[in-house]
Amino acid sequence: MRKPIIAGNWKMNGTIASGSILIEAFNSVLQDMELSCDVVVCPPFTAIERAVALTRDTAIAVGAQTMDYHDAGAFTGEISPLMLTEVGVNYVIIGHSERREYYGETDETVNAKIKSAFHHNLTPIVCVGESLEQRESGHTLDWITSQLKGALVDVPKEQVSQLIVAYEPIWAIGTGKTATADQAEEVCKEIRDYIRSLYDDETADAVRIQYGGSVKSENALEILGEPNIDGALVGGASLVVDEFIDIIKAANQIGA
Ligand code: PGA
């Protein structure tokens, strides 16, 4: 059985101080829980080092929200995978729709970043998702498979089985509009089937697929209960202690 994974994407919110308070609050609840899911927090870069220190010897792992695919060089403003591993990061979100929309990420850069992440022992959380226009014009599944195809060029199956795909319909991110559990499951199943067609059963059955887009305590259990959904990438609700904890509890229930 695939272990559910809940990741909190803090985006460009908070400070080192507010992030520390959040993590300490998570720690105080999670330390008394037997966890049957993985938990990741992805703070802004400046708060990562503190987050790693505060989560040492806890069940929480730390991820970055993006990275460059080069190891070093003249790339002003970028952060390299070496810098992330140096501070103790284990996961990295790649190709979030906000990165694609505002910072020019493409399927090619996503592909390069996935390879670079694995090279440096970082687990990529690879985001795909359709716009409202694409959904309304019936192009959702074509679009998602084309994003995946581009993302996975020359990525070997041993790596694909380790990565995490986050299906995040753009129209559901930060809007309060969640995909229904059926809509989310339909696409997550398609993602798994497409990986099966590119690789094999073993790889498709191992890859963990998250849903993201306005996940909150009230819809988490229903979404996470779907057979092809193995967790959630959570934005807004990951900044609210009770919300994030309740989502983790829902995953724990499913994973138990
Ligand atoms: P949201 O964001 O939960 O605030 O909709 C999800 C995401 O962008 O990863």
UniProtKB/TrEMBL annotation:
Function: Involved in the gluconeogenesis. Catalyzes stereospecifically the conversion of dihydroxyacetone phosphate (DHAP) to D-glyceraldehyde-3-phosphate (G3P).
Pfam families assigned to the protein according to its UniProt record, in alphabetical order: TIM
NCBIfam families per record: tim
Name of the protein this chain belongs to: Triosephosphate isomerase
Subunit annotation: Homodimer.
Gene Ontology molecular function: any one: triose-phosphate isomerase activity
Subcellular location: Cytoplasm
Family per similarity comment: Belongs to the triosephosphate isomerase family.
Segments traversing the membrane: none
Pathway: Carbohydrate degradation; glycolysis; D-glyceraldehyde 3-phosphate from glycerone phosphate: step 1/1; Carbohydrate biosynthesis; gluconeogenesis
Keyword Cytoplasm carried by entry: yes
Superkingdom of source: Bacteria
Any single GO CC term annotated in Swiss-Prot or TrEMBL for this entry: cytosol
Main location: cytoplasm
Record-listed E.C. numbers: 5.3.1.1
Keywords per UniProt: Cytoplasm, Gluconeogenesis, Glycolysis, Isomerase
GO biological process: gluconeogenesis; glyceraldehyde-3-phosphate biosynthetic process; glycerol catabolic process; glycolytic process
Encoding gene (name): tpiA
CDD domains documented for this protein: TIM
Active site feature: 96, 168
Origin species: Veillonella dispar ATCC 17748
